[in-house]
Amino acid sequence: MRERAVLNALHEEAYEAKQIDPKAKRSSQEKAKAQQDAQKRMCENFFDVRTFGAVMTTGEADCGQVRGPLQLTFARSIDPIVAAEFSITRCAVTNEKDAEKERKMGRKFTVPYGLYRCHGFINPTLAEKTGFSEEDLGLIKGAFNEMFEVDHSSARGLMAPVRCIAFRHDNKLGNARADELFSLVTVEKRPELQAENLPPRSRNDYVISLREPLPEGITAEEWVSTRWLVATT
Fold it and tell me: Which stretches of the chain drop beneath a pLDDT of 50?
């Protein structure tokens, strides 16, 4: 996915790369084969397709639907947040005829601090189908580390990842349920804040812990910057 990209044009490029005419009449079996070949091309050529999946059934160049192996949930704040409202003033005007008018007022909202938690899943079976590899996973780890560095603003000036804990299974079908593993990662406010009922204002106001022992066949990998520290059970 790229800004202002024309999706159907990208689908047609996949058909052209496989030397397939998207407008040609085909039997159901031939159509499925053409779609499969074009879909494979899209997975090979686009990182986001083979990682997160895509719906590519629009237009004559039908590339089908890809279910991505990596899925991320929406993040939720650990504690309730209260947005702070600020008044801002525009010091300029749009047209000369408005030069003598009063300047317009506006509003901006910020959050003093919030720690958010989200969960992610990687399906090894789907990874085999799309071609998602350990090298691709390395790119994801790097992206997690840098994802806020190119999106700073006055309202989101200090957004940054705090910790990333991943669980690797020895068995392709999994050695434990995801909810059981996620429950091993606990996040609590420091006792002094709880005693005085104070709101958190930095990452240091929380204690993030990984309870042990881990289930058999599970390895915990903790992300530190762009490196991963491995702790085996």
Answer: 226-233
